[in-house]
Amino acid sequence: MQITPQELLKHLNGIVAADIRQSLMIWGPPGIGKSTIVAVVAEEHGFQLIDLRLSQLAPTDLRGLPVAENGYAKWFPPEFLPTDGKGILFLDEINMAPPAMQGVAQQLILDRKVGSYVVPDGWFIWAAGNRKEDRAAVYQMPSALANRFLHLEITPDFDSFKFWGLRNNLSEEILAFLAFRPSLLHKIHSKHPAWPSPRSWAMADQLHKAKLSVEPAIGAAIDEFTAFLAIYASLPDLDSILSGTSKSKFPAEPSRRYAVTLGLAVRSTTADNAFHALKWVAEKADAEWLQFFVTSLFPMLRDNGQMASTFKRMSADPELIKITAQIRDLLLSY
Known about the structure:
The protein has 2 domains: about 1-155, 3-Layer(aba) Sandwich (Rossmann fold); about 160-330, no CATH class. It is built from 17 helices and 10 strands. It has helices spanning about 5-15, 35-45, 60-65, 100-110, 145, 160-165, 170-180, 200-210, 215-220, 220-230, 240-245, 255-265, 270-285, 285-305, 305-315, 320-325, 330, and strands at about 1-5, 25, 50-55, 65-70, 70-75, 85-90, 115, 115-120, 125-130, 150-155. The strands form 3 sheets. It has a 6-stranded parallel beta sheet. A two-stranded antiparallel ribbon has the order 4-5. Strand 4 (about 65-70) and strand 5 form a beta hairpin. It is elongated and about 85 Å long.
């Protein structure tokens, strides 16, 4: 089953809500955010999270060590395995582990125990790995092990990344660029070690905010990103739009449209800012760009606690009342 990162988050939350303890395998290319999404689920539910990189462990690391006791060998389990509470035991890079290691993991996944160790009832067992087509050094997963999992395949998706980026204060320039060039959200390069992925764009954000080149994070994509930054520098005055004093027209060139729309969404931190920006976009742009702006703006308003105040401003403005019907479905979803 193919699924976007945002859909994966909802799916995993649904599994936790339904208390489905079936082991689950998340497939996907490197850098797409598999482990990050699992960490978000654990945090949202107040769970412990134990993230084991199986490719870095030996079978004895997971099974434990035999110790003589009363003439018998007793297995002492490793201290990193859970013994109580609730949580997620996340077996990352499972198919990068050699067959012997996968064999030990199979017992843990199938029987919820290994040696003398038993996984507590309050724990979910999830795993993740890359596919062969991702140029990852993976081993073939034995069919017996694969058949023990539910399987989900995560695919790159800009809307999911935008949602995450808006909530985590990612640079508006990066989000606007990827809205314009979504194919560069995730693009493995066979000849260069640095290439764009959701993970590397998050690293690029740190460099960009420090006014350093982002090339070490995204590699050859730097040329297009640099050209886009030149466009971004020539945008209309966004602050005047947010204050309601702008007479600027909506740009005609697509890259500038993405830049203006996302720039306004990121900077609309108050109900007044959001009201003026929404009114300007509604007056200057067509329905397609209005919808793109709303889907970028409303998650920000919800997280900042500004939704109710913004709706109050909208409902008092005759012009915005007219366009409410255009975005009714979007309004109801928030």
